[in-house]
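Batch manifest, entry 17 of 40.
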Amino acid sequence: MVDSADWDEMMKHQAGSGPAPDAPQLCLTIYKDGFTIADGLFRPITDPTNKKFMDDIVAGRVPAELGSADRDIAINDKRGEEYKEPGHGPKKNKPTDWNSLGAGNSLGGSSSSAAAVAVSADSGSIAVDESKPKTKIQIRFHDGQKKAQEFNHEHTVGDLRKFCSQCIGGSAVTVMGGFPPKPLTDDSQTLKAADLLGAAVTTRPA
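Output type: structure tokens
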């Protein structure tokens, strides 16, 4: 399911990003025929949704179902064996509860002061050149609101940060991207160079 090349690519993303501060940990166990998340139901790779999830992990993107929440991902490598039901009898169908894993609306445990900052997702503005390559970035704010915003490939991380800041009244913001999420600090980097085309990011008051 995850070959050696994919595994090396996934480990490169893991090593290059590191966990977000105070991020809730999530255990991803990868088997020959699928994977499990925490103590959730086994997910066979033959399911297109599950394959998309793993494709995102390998590419260093945040799978959509994670809601772009910050978290420390612990990967358990069991690629050499097929999944076996634990204990005796069938395993209870227990879907993954993202809220219990800290997905919720908080980003790595947002403070009450951060949560009090009002979000107006429609307040941001960015000039998009229709004649140049475009992309959409899914932005998740600290209060759980989401906005899919269009940018040009040549827009910078700084442009993205400015847009997010406008949405919370001009306050300084921390923007996190990648998988696991890490702070985006190079405002001069283009969205394309930062591998943010079509990506999901999280933002909170700095």
